[in-house]
Description:
The structure is a homodimer. Chain A is of the alpha+beta class. The first copy, chain A, has 9 helices and 20 strands.
Amino acid sequence: MKKLLILAAALVMSLGAFAQQALWGGQRIVSPEINPDNSVTFRFVAPKAIKVQVTGDFLPTQTVEFEMNGRQMSFDMPGVADLKEGEGGVWSFTSQPLASELYNYNFIVDGISVKDPNNAYVQRDISNIMNYFIIGGGKGDNYLAQDVPHGTVSRVWYDSPNTESKVRRMSVYTPAGYEQSKKKYPVLYLLHGMGGDEEAWLCTGRTAQILDNLIAQGKAEPMIVVMTNGCPQHASAPGESHEGMYKPYNVSSMGGAFESSFGDVIKFVDSRYRTIKKSSGRAIAGLSMGGFHSYHISANMPKTFDYVGLFSAAIMPHEGVSHPIYDNMNEKLAVLFGNNPKLYYIAIGKTDFLYEANVELRQRLDAAGYNYIYNESEGGHVWRNWRDYLLDFAPRLFK
Amino acid sequence: MKKLLILAAALVMSLGAFAQQALWGGQRIVSPEINPDNSVTFRFVAPKAIKVQVTGDFLPTQTVEFEMNGRQMSFDMPGVADLKEGEGGVWSFTSQPLASELYNYNFIVDGISVKDPNNAYVQRDISNIMNYFIIGGGKGDNYLAQDVPHGTVSRVWYDSPNTESKVRRMSVYTPAGYEQSKKKYPVLYLLHGMGGDEEAWLCTGRTAQILDNLIAQGKAEPMIVVMTNGCPQHASAPGESHEGMYKPYNVSSMGGAFESSFGDVIKFVDSRYRTIKKSSGRAIAGLSMGGFHSYHISANMPKTFDYVGLFSAAIMPHEGVSHPIYDNMNEKLAVLFGNNPKLYYIAIGKTDFLYEANVELRQRLDAAGYNYIYNESEGGHVWRNWRDYLLDFAPRLFK
Lengths: 399, 399
């Protein structure tokens, strides 16, 4: 009888969850289902719908081409597939077998974008919430939590007197073993793109999983990864500071303010963590606007980083921009490369709208005889490439 | 010209985001909009829809009553309101002025549950993703990040040899100033309910914001808050361990395994953090199943916690359950209360389905002459109450 009572209580609590689930849109089916051949079945319950579709980057992309300033550029737009209605109003679609990768998707029900109510795994990119799934058995294994030692991931506030908000938020990954050890660790400063924040590399970039896995396999050195917020107009990611729960927008910071305050970041990290406080223990890399930041920060602090990574970097001529950070870049690069950095790394996709800008950058570096590693990939200005670049870049550091 | 190029590049990157936004369902309107009188306007673009509704706990609830084991019980189901179609297919609904609070909601478009594409703020409760918003100017201010010093929030892995997985994940809040200080801090162990995990109190419970605010106002002592995962069948929250990205479900742990392994938690916390390593520096509290855990852990470790909080606790007669943790509870409670704990705190809502179970618990405590604080609130088995209880409980600790 006593046991029965407990079971009944458990049942009621389940009932509560079911009621909630029905209420909030949960459906008691499996979606997405990764099949043994790595095809993926998407399911959605909608007995009254006329059309149910799925869109995502697992489908063949539609390339949108356009011209800007005489340059041919393009975007890859995810494709769209129709689901078919089956018994009980359950619509479904099965994809082709997919390569091992992290994919994003959404349903479209009679023209309305709908998250998959059966998939609790979502990523936020600026203001957009996207469902995702990961196909393992290859590259995607790097993005999945594995049975390996895990680092600690922290959201930390630091003093940044050289910004308006004075205190700012960063995300910090310390590798497994950091807390038990007494040794000093190198630091990778990893910067996001336009509209991003200190959550971007953790959430969409899967940085903690990538580093856990690379370090456990012996491919990367144990390192601290510091993920800053590159927009000093804000103290933190949306909703995390007294600025309130505003609608995230495509905020940019390409006026010198973030780069000028980067000394605050290094000073804090070197005081809070057991770091190797010299250039051989520091790397800086970023994607898009973060590549722009990395390019300028490394050149303006030419004795600070032995490793620099520009991922789809928004490199443009800057001589006309009125901030000292952007002045005299050729002279600054001469000093930087004069110090023989151990790695200067440029990666970009063939259809990235910043491809030509990076060709120009390389031409300048080539003309001056500077050494760098160049990784030209397929695809465009997308997170899939930035995760790839981190996978390629991190193992090259601190060796 | 150079400036123009940069502007153009910024434009293209914006364009990319807009394309993405359209693709992933973003709409360029404001929703929800909190009006000056604290009414809230919800908007949704759906030119072809027949019916657009909003459901959430800001609407008058519908109480569902039922009987179990001869007891009258009830759930509060969120209400539903119809939006009206306006120009350009923009549907809208404005609520009554709302009390200061955190509210959850969803749209329902022609019967399909849809997240608000204009609101990037979501909470996960078990497998359900819910939009939320916060009305400030009162109690809700506790749940908003304010212009106060912020603590550090970390996801940490710890050794738990007394569980199957051996290593497990927890969330840890250290108060502002912890890292710069040398003093020792008290610890609140804060446990989630059925289906929850180590993210629940941070995400839906707003623990970091609550503690930041209470501490900054001088209402609560600076304390560490340790949020465990109460289901030792799992190493971590869904997707965070090698168990993979399974569909979160209403997992329960009421068989003694979690309680038995709680020594692992305390051992780790006392070794990793600067803690006050005695009962006067330890509190344990939990909601629902976490209240059940707190009840048994505190009684089985009677010299460990001077502060115990049972929030809507799943207290049931347990003498028949075959685990030593649940045996001889009356004798264990006698030892616990014999040690004169500084606070034994019971909170429950009037319409909670566990109300009667908590009446019985209080009758037992009363019959034995044990002292406790009792907080009877309106409402049922909902997060709104659990945040309230934390707001009431935390200021009573470590004074």
